[in-house]
Amino acid sequence: MSTQIAPRPRASEAPRRRTSTRPTPTHPIQPAPFRWSQDPELVYRAATSPTPTHYVTLPQENLPDPGPWAANLARAIVEVVTGVRQAPQLRRWLLPDLYGALMCVHMSPCARGTRPVHVRTCPLDERTTEAAVIVSTVSRTYALALRLEEYHGRWITTALELA
Fold this sequence. Notes:
By secondary structure, the chain is α+β, with helices and mostly antiparallel strands. 15% of the residues lie in helices and 27% in strands. It has two helices and five strands; from the N terminus they run E-H-H-E-E-E-E. The protein has helices spanning 66-82, 96-103; strands spanning 34-37, 115-125, 128-136, 141-151, 154-162. The chain starts with 33 loop residues before the first strand and ends with a strand. The relative contact order is 0.20.
């Protein structure tokens, strides 16, 4: 003779499965909340566009290493967007149109303690580099894609995507 020790759970009481946060065909990835570029296609035109005569070309040795530089700039951008840092501190490192567009973006505030987790750079030529940076905060992780171009011996950001 067998007796049931505990009643079976009903369908409404079945244990819940954890849902995945990965993108699926029914739940695609959301577009980046901020994307800006002077050139929407970002076509690599270095070989076809002539260098202006007034442009002073400095040797590559005078430019800082783009990896750590992009990591510090990405951290500062995340701090500006979340309200931890004042935006005018970035004015020198961004194109004016990019700076103006970034001023309009506000995300949820986060605690201090932003830190770059991963940086990957891809030099396109001696004066242009693209960088992908992952910045972690206490409450969220941000991904940034930056296009850096040499301008009078320093890097300036000409395109930015923040997700």
